[in-house]
C-alpha cells in the first residue's frame, strides 16, 4: 500500500497545523469582538448617564437650568425653522410653546424658620407637583433657587395659564410634613406663549414672563399673571 511520500505527508500536516492556527485566531478575534461590543455598550450607558447628570437637578430630579435651556432651544428651533430643517434634525412640527415661570413665595422665610433641610423638602415637593401636572412631552426644570420653568410644546398662553393654576391650587392645598412639622407654601407664576407669529425673540418673551411673575408677587402673591394681562395693565 502506497502511503505517499514523506514530503507530501509533511505538507498535509503543516496545512492542518496552519488551519488550526487560523481557527484559533478567528476564535480569538471573535472573543475580542464580543469584548469590544460589551465595552462599547458600557461606554454608551455611562455616557448617557453622564449626560443625564449634566442636565438634571440633583435635588429635584427635574431638568437643571442647562437641561431646560437645551429643551427650550429645541422648541424655538422647531418653531422658527422650516419643515426641511426640522426633518433633517429630527425636530417635531411645532407652532407654539407655552412658557411658565414660577417662584415659591416667601421661601427665605421657610428656610429661616424651619432650616435648609426643610427648604429642600419643600423644593422636592413643589418639583414633584410640577412633574405630576404636566404631559409626558412637556418639560419641567429648576431654573435656580426656588424658581421653576415649565415649557409646553404646542401650548398657548391660555392653556399654560390653566396648567399654572392647577399647580398653584395643588401647592396651596398641600401640607408638607418634615420632622413632625407641617409646612404650607404658595407660588406665584408668570405665563406666556412663543409662536410662529411672535415678532419678538425668545429672550424678549422670557423677560416679559419674568415681569409677569413679579407682577403676581407685587399684587399679593399666590396668583398667576399672563403676559397679555400684564401688557393690558401697562397700557
From TrEMBL:
Xref: SUPFAM superfamilies: Nucleotide cyclase
Coiled-coil portions: 12-56
Pfam families listed in its UniProt record: GGDEF
Keyword Amino-acid biosynthesis: no
Gene3D superfamilies, per the entry: 3.30.70.270
Cellular component annotations (GO), alphabetically ordered: plasma membrane
InterPro entries in alphabetical order: Diguanylate_Cyclase (IPR050469), GGDEF_dom (IPR000160), Nucleotide_cyclase (IPR029787), Rev_trsase/Diguanyl_cyclase (IPR043128)
Boundaries of every GGDEF domain copy: 95-229
Gene Ontology molecular function: diguanylate cyclase activity
Keyword list, A-Z: Coiled coil
GO biological process terms, semicolon-separated: cell adhesion involved in single-species biofilm formation; negative regulation of bacterial-type flagellum-dependent cell motility
PANTHER family in the cross-refs: DIGUANYLATE CYCLASE DGCM-RELATED, REGULATORY COMPONENTS OF SENSORY TRANSDUCTION SYSTEM
Protein name in UniProt: GGDEF domain-containing protein
Organism this protein belongs to: Candidatus Portnoybacteria bacterium CG_4_8_14_3_um_filter_44_10
Amino acid at each position: 500500500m502506497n502511503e505517499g511520500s514523506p514530503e507530501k505527508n509533511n505538507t498535509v500536516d503543516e496545512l492542518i497545523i496552519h488551519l488550526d492556527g487560523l481557527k484559533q485566531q478567528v476564535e480569538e478575534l471573535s472573543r475580542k469582538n464580543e469584548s469590544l461590543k460589551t465595552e462599547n455598550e458600557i461606554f454608551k450607558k455611562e455616557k448617557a448617564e453622564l449626560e443625564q447628570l449634566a442636565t438634571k437637578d440633583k435635588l429635584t430630579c427635574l431638568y437643571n437650568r442647562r437641561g431646560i435651556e437645551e429643551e427650550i432651544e429645541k422648541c424655538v428651533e422647531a418653531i422658527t425653522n422650516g419643515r426641511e430643517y426640522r426633518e433633517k434634525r429630527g425636530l417635531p412640527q411645532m407652532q407654539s410653546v407655552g412658557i411658565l415661570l414660577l417662584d415659591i413665595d416667601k421661601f427665605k422665610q421657610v428656610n429661616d424658620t424651619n432650616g435648609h433641610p426643610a427648604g429642600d423638602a419643600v423644593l422636592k415637593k413643589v418639583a414633584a407637583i410640577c412633574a405630576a401636572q404636566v404631559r409626558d412631552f412637556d418639560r419641567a426644570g429648576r431654573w435656580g433657587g426656588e424658581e421653576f420653568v415649565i415649557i409646553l410644546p404646542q401650548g398657548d398662553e391660555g392653556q399654560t395659564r390653566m396648567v399654572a393654576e392647577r399647580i398653584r391650587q395643588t401647592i396651596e392645598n398641600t401640607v408638607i410634613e418634615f420632622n413632625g412639622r407641617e409646612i404650607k407654601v404658595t407660588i406665584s407664576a408668570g405665563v406666556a406663549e412663543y409662536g410662529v407669529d411672535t415678532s419678538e425673540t425668545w429672550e424678549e418673551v422670557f423677560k416679559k414672563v419674568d415681569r409677569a411673575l413679579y407682577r403676581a408677587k407685587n399684587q399679593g402673591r399666590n396668583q398667576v399673571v399672563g403676559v397679555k394681562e400684564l401688557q393690558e395693565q401697562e397700557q
